[in-house]
Specification:
The chain is mainly alpha-helical and 210 residues long. The chain is built from 9 helices and no strands.
């Protein structure tokens, strides 16, 4: 819902506010793109600003530090990807293999490549780690919830929560295996095999009623 003005009517955004939002959006998208392509060391605020087509001053107006820019970018793009996966997974005709493919796709694109760069830096940077840990905790909860939703399972059943977490750990591992070389052919075989195992393990009533 939109914000309300003092008269109770919805507040109207000005052209300047629209431009500011558009600039912020470009910066967030450019940050993920440059991190995934160039890595942490080479992705400076100036590099991100140039890729977004804005001045460095404009970038620093929105994000005073590189750490603030990168954590905001990961937060925003993760929300975009989760919404996309939830939309694509809403087809009731999707089988277990298709759902697993969607879950794995969260960990094999530019967003995951960018996140790995930030994770590695945060391991030795206390200030960055303090910003990243709450974000990672939220994303872990949301990816777990969407996996439960798309797989249609009942977490009140013994072992189901651990099974879902195992799926997410497997997906993350496949994402790491894809960082240096294209691992897509092997990944498809692994997903197909896991789908069969998962169907067997959930065949004893662990799925929620349709």
């Amino acid at each position: 819902m939109g914000a309300l003005g003092t008269t109770g009517a919805p507040a109207t955004r000005t052209p300047q506010q629209d431009r500011s939002r558009a600039t912020r959006q470009r910066l967030l998208e450019a940050a993920v793109d440059r991190l995934a392509e160039l890595g942490w060391a080479r992705t400076t605020v100036a590099v991100v600003a140039a890729h977004a087509g804005v001045s460095r001053g404009a970038a620093q107006h929105h994000f005073p530090t590189r750490e603030a820019l990168f954590t905001a970018a990961l937060d925003h793009m993760a929300d975009v990807r989760i919404a996309e996966i939830r939309r694509r997974g809403g087809d009731r005709h999707n089988g277990t293999e298709a759902v697993l493919g969607l879950i794995v796709s969260f960990y094999t694109g530019p967003l995951f490549r960018a996140a790995v760069q930030v994770w590695v830096q945060a391991a030795a940077d206390e200030a960055l780690r303090s910003q990243l840990v709450p974000l990672e905790a939220r994303l872990a909860r949301e990816t777990h919830a969407i996996a439960v939703e798309l797989l249609g399972v009942d977490e009140s059943r013994p072992g189901v929560r651990e099974t879902v977490q195992g799926v997410l750990d497997m997906a993350r591992g496949l994402g790491l295996a894809n960082l240096l070389t294209d691992d897509s052919r092997r990944r498809r075989r692994v997903v197909k095999q896991w789908a069969g195992i998962l169907q067997s393990s959930l065949a004893d009533g662990a799925r929620r009623p349709a």
